Structures are given as structure tokens and as C-alpha cells.
Amino acid sequence: MKQTQSIAIGVLGVAVIALFVLHFTGGAVRPSNKPVKKTAAGTELLDNTGRIAYFEMDSIERKYEYIKEIQGKLKSQEQAIRNEMQSIRNGYMARIQQLQEKAPSMSQSEGEAAQGEINQMEQNVQQKEAKLGQDLQEQQFKMMQDINKKIEEYLTDFNKGRKFTYIISRQSGDFIYFRDTTMNITNDLIKGLNEQYNNDKSIKSSKKGEKE
Q: Which one has a higher pLDDT value, 8 or 162?
């Protein structure tokens, strides 16, 4: 009798992380010789009209508090699914053992019925496992889209006074052989996203307290 396969669900794996990559289109890149300015986080930047800024996606993943929250939720959901499947498998194996103990005294028709029951139970376990895995992956995808949207919306507001032509993400493995580190806005982005996250969290907490 074949064994059921265990759940293989990756949390925030490389394929999902790729959903974070943001692309912003605009005009052609033009050099600028205007004076140096400082960002809110103290990073020195040139007047960036017609220039490209970038951020390190690996740093965002490590330091953006909302991503940490999402990771925690996904891990909790994954563990809940593992626990549920283990409970289902335990019931399945207990029923098989019960039927095996009765097998010597079963008639041919009873044996066939028992085998049919076992086959159906095994199919049900596999279908349940597949559905739970799919549900988690869909939830994971929605959360990644939400993170992507938050970053995009913040950068749209962030760029209003800076007028970068492009803001791109960079991570290990990208084919970018040179980058001007004065155009690195990672620290500004982390600072701003976390401030926004904490403000949203405070507002939600206040509303929850008012309802109680």
C-alpha cells in the first residue's frame, strides 16, 4: 500500500521573493551636475532629475517589519496545516490497523469492501493535502502582492520630491555590474516603510481599543 506524500510548502522562497521586484518606467536617463542633497535618512544624493535610484531587496526582506509579520503568519499557517494533516493521517492509519485486525475473520465481500474503504480514505487524504497546500500558496501569493503594493505606493509618494526617472530593486544574482552607491535609497526606504507600518499598526490598535 503506497504511502501518502508529506506537504512540501516553501515559505517566502526564491520564486515568491521574485514577486517583490518593482519596475518603474519613465524618460531617458540624463546626467545631472546639480548640487548634492541629503535624504531624510541622511544619505547624500545628487539632484536626481533624469537619474536612476535603486534599493537592495535583500535588505528590505530582512528589515521591513511588515515582511517579518507576513513571514510569521505564513509559518503559523503552514504549521497548522501540518498539524491538521498529521491528525488526518493518524485517523487513516488507525482505521487501516482496525481493518487489518478484522481481516482474518472477514468474508471475501467484506474484505473487498474494506479494501475499497481504504482506497477511498487514501484518496481523500491526498485530495485534502493538495487542497490545503494550494490554499496556503494562494494566501502566500496574495500577501506577496500586498507587500509589493505597499512598496510601490510608498515609492510613488517618496519620489514626488525627488523625480527619479527609474527606481529599481537589486538583489544577489542580478546582472548589474556597476552601481553608483550615491543612488542607493535602501536606508530611506526601510526607514519610511517601517514608520508607515508602525503608524498603521498604532491606528489599528487604537480602533480595536475603541471597539472594546
A: 162
